[in-house]
Amino acid sequence: MFARKFLQKSSGGGQKPAPAPPTRGCLITEDLDPNIVTHYGIPSTASLLAFDPIQCLLAVGTLDGRIKVIGGDNIEAVLASPKQLPFKNLEFIENQGFLVSISNENEIQVWDLDLRQTVSSLHWESNITAFSILHGTGYMYVGDEYGMVSVLKYSADEGKLVQLPYYVPTDALAEAAGLSSPIDYPVVGLLSQPCSRGTRLLIAFSNGLLFLWDASEDRVVLVRGNKDLPVEGKTVGDSLEASHEELSDLQLDGKEISSLCWASADGSVLAVGYVDGDILFWEFADGQKGKPSNHAVKLQLSSAEKRLPVIVMHWCLDVSRKNCGGKLFIYGGDIIGSEEVLTMLGLDWSSGVGGLKCVGRVDLTLSGSFADMVLSPIASSRQSGMFLFLLTNPGQLQAYDDTSLASLMSQKENNISVSPLPYPMVVPTMDPHMTVAMFTALNVNDKTSLTLSEIVLAAKSRTPRTPSGEIAQWPLTGGVPSHLDDYKLERLYMAGYQDGSVRIWDATYPCLSLIYDLEPKTNGIDITGVDASVTAISFCSKTSCLAVGNECGMVRLFQLVGHKSGGTLEVITNTDKQGSLLVAHRLHQEDGPQWLAAYSFLSSPVCTMRFVESTKRLAVGFKCGKVAMLDIGAPSVMFVTNSFSDFGSPIKSLCVKSSSAPTDQNSINSEALDDLILCAMTKDGQTVLFDGNTGKILASCLRPLKNPTAICMHIIEDCYGNSEMPSEKPAENPSGKEKHEKKSHMVDANESHSPGGEQSAVIETILVDQRFANSLFLMCSEDVLRLYSIKPLSQGSLESIMEVNLPSPCCWMGILKKDKRECAVLLLYRTGHFEIRSFPDLEVVGESSLLSLLRWNFKPNMEKTVCSDDFSHVVLVNGCEVAILSFLAHANGFRIPESLPLLHDKVLAAAADATFSHFPAHKKNHDGAPKFLSGIIKGFRSSNEQKVDQVQDFSHLGNIFANPPYLKPSATGGDDEKIVELNIDDIEIDEPLTILPATEKDKKEKKDKRSEKEKLFDGASSDAQPKTRSVDEIKAKYRKAGETSAIASQAKDKLLERGEKLERISQRTAELQDGAENFASMAHELAKQMEKRKWWNI
C-alpha cells in the first residue's frame, strides 16, 4: 500500500574482494520493508471533509492522495492512494464501512475501512463535475462535463464497483426546458430529493438550469432557471431592516451556478449560489407539477457590484420555526477584498417562501484560508445535536456545536464571542511547539517496567482524552479500540515543548495514549528558568528516571515509579570549585512522577544527556562545550570539564561505556566504576574520551575541518564477532581531500573541576583495551561517515579505519538492530531521503524517502524531533503530523494487525440496520438525529421536541436502475398478486371431435348456437384457476396398493400419458395457427372485394 524503493548499490572506493555470506547481525535488502505503523494529526494539505453520522467518523481528503480517517478514543488512520493526486470528491457509504473518493484523474476508488485499502476502482472516461451517494445505499450518481448523469453501484458482497444501465437522457431534459438540442453543459450539482425514496434527483447545470428528475417514471417533474421564462419573486438583503424588491430586472442568461443545497427537510426549497455572488431560493413543491415557472427569492450578502462567488453552502433545520426556516452557512458571496469569514444566516419563511426574510447574521472568523466544511447531526455519549466541522489551511480542524451557534445568533448585539472547539491532537506539535522527542523501548521483564505497566493502566483510566480545561468535548466517537489481554508496557514516547512541559505517551500499540503531562511550574515554588524551552530528554528504564534539560542550562530530574520524595525538591547549584550549593524546598506532589531535583550550575543550554546504565549517574553536555557528571543519588555534581573545543563548539553527542556496571537492580549505586569511559563529540568534529570518574581526558582526535557539522556518534558492540575486521588503513578519499591531521591531547586532572577535589583514580588501560577490543566508534557528520577503533589508550589517540563520503548533506543518524545486535545505520538526508547502510562495510542495502512513505517534504529543523528505538522504529514530526515508521520486514513489535483499532463498528452498524428494518416509522429529535439512535449509538440523549418521519426503503431502486430509461419491463400484475404454478397433469385436453350423421347434426344446431369466435376462445374469459390440492388429497388420488413393481409400472404409464398429452397440445396449437392464417387470408380477400363494390351496392 505504501510506495517503497530499494536499490542495491555498491559503496564507493577501490576494488574489494567478493562479499562473503552475511554474518550474524548484518543486513541485506530482503530484510527491509519500510511501512507506516501509525499516523496522527491533520495533514497540512487537507482540502476535503466527509462525515458518517451513524458511525461518527470524519474523513479528511488531501491534495497529495492521502485520506485521514478520525474517530474517538485516539483512533486515527491514514489511507494512501497509489498516485499522489488531489481528491475532488469524498463521501462515505453511510454505515457500511466504505469510503468513496474521486481523484483529479477521475479515478473512482472505494476504500474498505476494515482493510484500510482500496477494494475496487473505476476510471471514468470524461471529467467528473458532480458526484453524490444516495444515503444508506451503494448507489452513486455521477455527472460529467458533457451533461451526462450516470448511475453506479458498489456491491459489498461482490466487492465491485459497476456502472448500471440507467442514465438520465439529456434530450428529455432539453425537451422539458423547451430547448431544440440536447443539453451539453457540465453538471455542477446532484442532490437526491428528501422523502422521495431515492427516485427523484435534482440536477443542476452550469448554465443555471435546474431539473427535478423522477427515475421511476422517467420524466422531468419540474424545471427551474429557464432564461426564456420571466422571473417572479423578491430580493432580500442580509440585514434585518432590508425591504423586498421585485425581481423583474434579474437576468438568468449567463448566470452560472457555483453551489447548491436543499433548504427544507422535505425538499420543497432549494438554495442555489451563483458565481456573481447571488443566492436564489427556488420552490420545488409537489403542487407545482406541470407548471413551468421561475418563482424565486434572491438573497444578497452585499450590495456591492462585484462580489465573490458563493463557493459552499450548507443548511440545517430550525425546529423552533416548524420547518419554515433554519440556518444557512455560506462561504463566499461577500464583497471582493473583504475579510475571509464563514457567514451564518438565520432565515424565516413562515408566511411562505415568497415572504422569506433574514432574521440574523453572524460572521465566523476563520483561523486560516477556507478549505471545506461539513454540517451534520451527531449522537454520541459526549455530545448530541447539530455540529459544524470547519477545515482551514494548513490542516486546522475546528467544530461548532448547535448551542454555541444559537447563542451567537441570539446575542449578537452583546458582542459575545464563542471560540470553536479545536481538534484535540493526540500528540501536540504546534500549540505548544514541540522542540525535542525521545522514543524508548522497555524491558518488559524488569520489575520497574512491570510496576510502570500497572501504573499506566490505572493512569489511562483517569487521564482525560481531551486537554484539561475544555468544557465541551470533541464530539467524534467512531471506531472500536483494540483490547489485548496480555498487555505490558513496551514503549514510551516522550516530547519536550517550548513552554517547558513534557508529555509521555504509552506507545506499546499503534493507538497512542497520554499517561503523564509534566508541567514546568509547581505551586508555591518559583525557580528561575524552570519554564524555559526543553532542549534535551533522557530516560533510564532501569531506574525509571527521567532527565529534562532546557535552554537555561537547568536539568530537572523526575522518577516515574518507586520513589517517595516526602514532599522535598532539591535544587543544586555549583558556585565554585569547592562544592555544590543545595537548597531544599517543601513540595506537595500527588501520585505520579515525582520531581526529585533540579540542577542549575551553568547558564549554557543543555544539548545532550546520557544516563550511565544501571547507575545513578547522568552525563550532561552543554552548548559551551563542557561536560558534567551528575550524581542523582546524592544529589550532587561530580565534575565539570573544561570546553573540549578551542572555539567552544557545542557537545553534539555522548556515549558511556562501563564493563563493570552492576546488572542486579538491587545493586544500583553511585559509587565509582573502575572502567567508566565517556566519549564526547563536539559539533566541529572533535572526539574526546575521558575518565567518567574524574573527567580526565584519555584520548582525543581533533580534525580541523573547514565547515564541520557533526551529527551523531554511536559505539558498536562486538560488531564483527568472529568475522574479520576491516582494514585499519583508511579508505582513499574519493574527493581527493587531504588527510586530516590527528592530534592527541592529554590534560592534567586539574583541568577538570571535581566537587570533592582532585581525584587520584587511575584508569587501567589494559583492561579497557580488552573491554573494547571488538567495539568500534561510528561517527556521522553532514558529509562523511567514519568508523574508529580504539588504539591502546596509552597512545592517546583514536584512529579511523573507514570513511564513506555521503551523497547529500545528512542531518540524522539512527541504528537498526537485528537479533539484538547492531546490523545497520539509518541515515536521513536533508533532501528527505532515507539510506540504509549495513555493517561492517557500510554498503547501501536500501533506500526510501519521506515523499514515498508519508508524502512529506523535508523541512528545516525537522531532525530535532526525529527519534528511534532499538527495534527499527523511527518517529518523525512534520507540522501537525506525527508518524511512526518501521524499516525491518520481520519486526512486528506493535503486533499488527491484532493491535490496530477498528474503524468500522460492525455491532453499531448491525443495530442501526435492524432498527431501521423493524421500525417503519420512527421519531426524530429536533437536531435531525433519529431517536432510535438513543438506544444504540453510545449514550445518545433524547429531546422533548420530536417529529415523525418515515424510514425510506430503497429496495425498489434495483429494478429501476437495472435497465435503461423507458425500457423497464412491463408488469402484468401487482406485486401482491398471487402466482399460481401450473402442472402438466392438471391440464385437461379436449377429445377429438366426432363427425355426426346429418340427422344428428341438425339436432345439435339448436344446442350449439355459439359463433366461431366464441368456439375459438372457449374458456378464455373464465377466471377459474387450477385447484390447489393438499398433500393428503394427492396421496389419496395416486396411492395404490401393490408391490413396488406395480407402482413403477403405474409411474411409467403416467409418463406415457404425459407424453401423449404434450403431443396433442402441439397438434392443437398447430391447428389453431392454421385456422388463424386462413381467417386472415379470407379477411384480406373480403376487403378487396368490398373495395370494388359501389357504395349503393353495400
Automatic annotation (TrEMBL):
Protein name, UniProt field: V-SNARE coiled-coil homology domain-containing protein
Subcellular location: Cytoplasm
Listed GO CC annotations: cytoplasm; plasma membrane
Keyword presence, Ion transport: no
Chain positions covered by the region annotation Disordered: 1-24, 723-757, 996-1031
Lineage of the organism: Eukaryota, Viridiplantae, Streptophyta, Embryophyta, Tracheophyta
Molecular functions (GO terms): GTPase activator activity; myosin II binding; syntaxin binding
Stretches assigned to coiled coil: none
Biased composition (Basic and acidic residues): 726-751, 999-1017
N-terminal signal peptide: none
GO aspect biological process, one term: exocytosis
Domain V-SNARE coiled-coil homology: 1033-1097
UniProt key word Cytoplasm: yes
Chief place of localization: cytoplasm
CDD domains the record matches: R-SNARE_STXBP5_6
Family: Belongs to the WD repeat L(2)GL family.
PROSITE patterns found in the cross-reference section: V_SNARE
Keywords: Coiled coil, Cytoplasm, Exocytosis
